[in-house]
Amino acid sequence: MSAADDGPFRQGNLILRRVRPWTPGVQALLASLRLHGFDAAPSPNGFDETWERVGYLPGVTGDLADNAAMRSEQTLRSAARLLRRYHHSSALALNGLNATYLWQLPSRSPIEIICHGDFAPYNVVLNDGVVTGIIDFEAAHPGPLVWDLAYAVYRWAPLSVNMAAEGLDSFAGQIRRARIFLDVYGLPFDARNQMPDVVIQRLEALLAFMEREAARGSERYRRNLQDGHDHIYRDDIAYVAERSAEIVAALTE
Ligand SMILES: Nc1ncnc2c1ncn2[C@@H]1O[C@H](COP(=O)(O)OP(=O)(O)OP(=O)(O)O)[C@@H](O)[C@H]1O
Ligand SMILES: [Mg+2]
Questions:
Q1: pLDDT tens digits for 97-132?
Q2: How far, in Å, CA of 182 to CA of 149, rounded?
Q3: CATH numbers and ranges of domains, the chain
Q4: Residue 178 Cα, ligand 2 centroid: separation in angstroms?
Q5: What is the pTM of this model?
């Protein structure tokens, strides 16, 4: 995290990042979450022509592969609890938001909440092994609750074919974690059958987004495609599709 690579950087108790077309929406969302009592997202500290400012959330950051604490069951459970709380507050926050805000990702029907859009281990902060905060609202967009939840399960289980990290590389371990996530989140059993299909649709939407951005000249997504990131998602779509019945069974039995 440094100013030099154009990514977000820390300045005291603030994180600064470059303003984008969706920054007003993100700042309004963060403000509305606060109004509804949600304190686990960064505070919105405004923006000028160049920089957006949000509050710095203290804690450990990292990913499943490089941070053993991120892989613990306690962390997994606390992530599911926090997402549940976020969705509750986000549904309330939605009512206070002007419908004309732009978001980086397309809205999806039915609009029940503002999805975080990228609720993954690399976008939370940990304190004593517990997920205490959510960061990086750049992918936030209006949509259904299960749309956000399915992507979170994909990232936290993870339902991914090329996951080399200890305990996360077997399908059995992954569906066990997916089950824990949904149990703690409290998704009713009759809503679980659709999970594999929604994961697949969400990854297809991600692929479409990457390709559209690359075609529009985005250097970041052009590089992603060059580095084969699209193959990861295509492989994972096939992985989930082939095991769809087994996943549903594990989530509902
Ligand atoms: N509000 C915040 N509080 C604490 N740390 C933050 C905050 N925002 C960003 N960071 C730190 O900066 C890193 C990158 O921020 P962020 O995830 O928002 O950007 P990004 O463009 O998605 O970068 P990356 O692709 O590395 O995730 C985070 O992993 C985290 O360490
Ligand atoms: Mg991030």
A1: 888 899 999 999 999 999 999 999 999 999 999 999
A2: 9
A3: 9-55 (no CATH), 68-252 (1.10.510.10)
A4: 22
A5: 0.96
